[in-house]
Design goal:
By secondary structure, the chain is mainly beta. The protein has three domains: about 1-100, Immunoglobulins (Immunoglobulin-like), CATH 2.60.40.10; about 120-125 and about 125-220, Ferric Hydroxamate Uptake Protein, Chain A, domain 1, CATH 2.170.130.10; about 235-795, Maltoporin, Chain A, CATH 2.40.170.20. It contains four helices and 45 strands. It has a 30-stranded mixed beta sheet that branches. A six-stranded mixed beta sheet has the order 8-9-14-15-12-13. Strands 3-2-5-6 form a four-stranded antiparallel beta sheet, with no helix packed on it. The radius of gyration is 29 Å and the shape is elongated.
Length: about 800
């Protein structure tokens, strides 16, 4: 009831802010009567001081509110056209009709265009990285641009924000439904020439879900007015331990009121992962070495249609789906040493997993622009279903004194099926006014996830189900959310505040154990932003946001997944969400040097640990809520151009964390520093900027993460890029992790027993890719977001 009253009160007081004001309206066109979009419309007083202003929309129209019974001047400008000015006297007509701009004099025979450095600007709730006409935008793709965006870290196909555990990517303000390798493949098809700016949102405002201690990256594409038919074809060959190939294409069509798009991607290959795990018991050391071959075999597709019902109303639907078989083969050798480092015995395990997954996601959306001031209403309805079926067979042989102990052979099989289904609906309203800009809306979601896990022992030449290790688990979750935010500019200050209220009801039901766990909670997630721009050289901002991190569906299932007879992973139906408060102070100097000071406080944090005891050889990997963490950090980034054919982007992050643990098995507390630095160098080998190179390196110091200590890691990457056929064909060759150093070791102490774990995910790779773009290059694709991004992400 209180939320309804708040929205009603908001709608009631809006007209009060526009009292005694009149609408100034008009349409800007060129002499051929074609509309001019994004022309500047300024309202000035008699001294030339700015009163208010706006830009024209894609139809060339504008509308803004000006105080009645006043005198002012209207000035309209656009690059390549002569400025238009008009004095408006008190009591004059505010309807300006059609305004024709004349093209500027074209007497210059040649125009020299100089590439500029990208610039950084602070907005009230985000950092804006503008790259138009910069070296960054020359002949690259979206992944290249992200690699040089302040605060963003790109490692192969992984995209992250410094100081954040996760990130989501938006295209033109709409959340991309892709993730991981699929997202990276798609971003590589976006030419950097199509991008105008990157927006980095470290503290997402109230409009976005409060789920995850994550930030947002919004890729804003250039807007054009003309129709479009075109697309791309891309292929990639990757050589690591094994070869892999990827192939895909996409096409977009837009004509008048209709927009269509479709794309398809496929991949086939494998990578090799090496994992080592050492456990130092008092009388024995267990040294485990595992080689895993992860297979890649997938086919994904996306298609959609948008239609303009009228001048200001659009509807559409889109589909996203994929099928994959990420099978894997494992060979694990565990050597048991005594206190004299002599071999007691050897456990040799071979395992194979057959996995089949597929998902379908449907979205229907509606948007109506209520006026030319930017007031609009949008509605999204989504349905998502995901299927994951796995079967894993493993065999463990025991060797003593170099001989096989046949009686000790152990054969075991796991089988599981998981099927989360979600339905979500959301309503968003944007309501700018002369006093402030308002956003408010609501979202509801219903999720159900069924899991069936079975374990089998091999007896009498047959697999027999082990009911003690099997479980059927049902999970239900309902969430309702409402939010509202307001932003306002006063002189050189920008302010924004928001509030998101989420109500959640969950129920986990283990049918096998006859145990039900219910959890009901509601939380308020406030956000606040202040930005001050005293002059052109300095911009200072302060932000705060509260976040929630809910457990994934799989983590809630209390089943045991054995990798060998002595080691298993177990879910936890009693996991609770954790909460994080984020604070950040940022400063930008001369649109380039960016400095951020940040802090975060996490309550009821969850993490995965491997439990060991002195009197048992069982190693149980479990997930628990047991962490409280305080973190403080500073990060800086800077772009420099030592010579005209080279540009370098440098960034670093230094942070300090303090954790306390409520789990008696672990250490009580831990403090420590973490340091990361990277430098990306771009080279132009010819004046046409069609032959380019890159030399990148990064270093991560020893540090801490939760109750773990992490050793150092670093990597060097080399790349060459060529542009052909009028820059429509891009060919790129990259060698990543040249010295095979992108690996680290995680150390921890559980129940007084020291553990060491490390892995290497085949990071040294040679990648040869080619992308060909066809069409008239006037891209104007209407890709709509899915409103169930958080729900689908938790299925992975």
């Amino acid at each position: 009831m209180s939320s309804k009253l708040s929205v009603s009160f908001l709608l009631f007081i809006l007209p009060l802010f526009t009292f005694s004001q009149k609408l100034l309206q008009g349409t800007v066109k060129d002499v051929q009567k074609e509309p001019i979009a994004f022309a500047n419309v300024l309202v000035l007083d008699h001294q030339g001081t700015l009163i208010t202003g706006t830009v024209t929309d894609e139809k060339g129209t504008f509308e803004l509110r000006v105080k009645d019974k006043t005198t002012f001047k209207v000035k309209i400008s656009f690059i390549g056209f002569v400025d238009w000015e008009k004095d408006i006297r008190e009591g004059a007509e505010f309807q300006l009709g059609t305004i024709l701009l004349k093209e500027a004099s074209n007497e210059l025979e040649t125009v020299v265009v100089t590439a500029k450095k990208p610039t950084i600007k602070r907005k009230v709730d985000r950092l804006v990285f503008s790259i138009e006409n910069s070296i960054v935008a020359s002949g690259g793709d979206a992944m290249d641009v992200l690699q040089k965006t302040p605060g963003v870290r790109v490692d192969g196909s992984s995209i992250g924000l410094i100081g954040k555990s996760a990130v989501r990517v938006l295209i033109n303000g709409r959340i991309s439904p892709l993730s991981g390798e699929d997202l990276a493949s798609y971003l590589r098809t976006l030419s950097s020439d199509e991008i105008t700016k990157i927006e980095v949102i470290t503290n997402p405002p109230a409009k976005y879900e409060a789920e995850g201690n994550s930030g947002l990256i919004n890729i804003v594409l250039k807007k054009v007015k003309r129709d479009y038919l075109g697309g791309n074809v891309h292929s990639t060959y990757r050589q690591a331990t094994y070869a892999s190939g990827f192939l895909g294409s996409g096409i977009t069509y837009q004509k008048d009121k209709l927009a269509l798009f479709a794309n398809v991607n496929s991949g086939l290959g494998a990578i090799e992962v090496n994992e080592t795990n050492k456990i130092y018991y008092a009388k024995q050391t267990w040294d485990t070495d595992t080689d895993i071959k992860y297979h890649t075999k997938f086919l994904s597709g996306r298609a959609g249609i948008d239609y303009d019902l009228g001048k200001n109303t659009t509807i559409g639907i889109q589909y996203l789906g994929a099928t994959s078989r990420p099978n894997n083969d494992e060979v694990t050798n565990t050597t048991l040493f005594n206190t004299s480092r002599a071999v007691d015995s050897l456990l040799a395990t071979t395992a194979a997993s057959a996995v089949k997954t597929y998902y379908h996601s449907m979205n229907a959306h509606f948007k109506a622009d209520l006026d030319t001031l930017g007031r609009n209403v949008s509605i999204d309805v989504d349905y998502f279903t995901y299927h994951n079926k796995q079967e894993r067979n493993n065999t463990t042989d025991t060797y003593k004194n170099g001989s096989l102990v046949s009686a000790a052979r152990n054969r075991f099989k796991n089988a599981s099926f998981q099927n989360p289904v979600s339905f979500t609906a959301r309503l968003d309203v944007a309501w700018p006014s002369s006093f402030a800009n308002y956003d408010f809306g609501t979202k509801i979601s219903h999720i159900k996830s069924n899991s069936d896990v079975k374990a089998f022992n091999f007896k009498n030449n047959a697999f027999v189900i082990d009911n003690n290790q099997s479980n059927i688990f049902e999970y239900r979750e309902n969430t309702q959310a409402v939010y509202a935010s307001a932003s306002k500019s006063i002189n050189k200050w920008d302010f924004k505040v928001g509030l998101r209220w989420e109500f959640t009801q969950t129920e986990g039901n283990s049918l096998t154990l006859n145990r039900i766990n219910k959890n009901h909670y509601n939380k308020v997630f406030p956000t606040a932003y202040i930005t001050h721009n005293p002059n052109d050289n300095h911009s200072l901002s302060l932000s705060y946001g509260k976040r929630i991190n809910r457990p994934s569906y799989g983590d809630l299932n209390p089943f045991r997944w054995y990798s060998n007879p002595f080691s298993y992973t177990e879910g936890n139906p009693f996991l609770q969400p954790s909460f994080t408060d984020n604070f950040e102070v940022s400063h930008t100097y001369k649109n380039n040097l960016n400095t951020s000071l940040y802090a975060s406080i996490t309550e009821n944090g969850q993490d995965q640990i491997t439990l060991t005891t002195p009197n048992s050889t069982i190693q149980a990997t479990v997930r628990r809520n047991f962490l409280e963490q305080y973190a403080f950090g500073v990060s800086q980034s800077y772009t420099l151009k030592p010579v005209n054919w080279m540009e370098s982007y440098i960034q670093y992050d230094l942070n300090y964390s303090k954790i306390s643990s409520q789990l008696p098995n672990t250490i009580n507390a831990q403090t420590g520093f973490n340091f990361y630095t990277g430098i990306d160098n771009s080279f132009q080998f010819n004046t046409d900027k069609t032959f380019l190179g890159e030399f990148n390196l990064w270093y991560s110091s020893p540090g801490v993460s939760g109750v773990d200590y992490i050793t150092e890691s670093y990597a060097v990457d080399l790349g060459l890029k060529g542009l052909f056929l009028n820059k429509d064909l891009q060919v790129k060759l990259v060698v990543s992790d040249v010295f095979k150093t992108n690996r680290n070791t995680i150390r921890s102490v559980i129940n007084g027993i020291r553990q060491e774990y490390s892995n290497y995910y085949d990071n040294r790779r040679l990648v040869l890719s080619a992308t060909y773009r066809f069409g008239n290059k006037k891209l104007r694709s209407k890709r709509k977001q899915f409103s169930n991004e958080e729900e689908r992400r938790r299925a992975n």
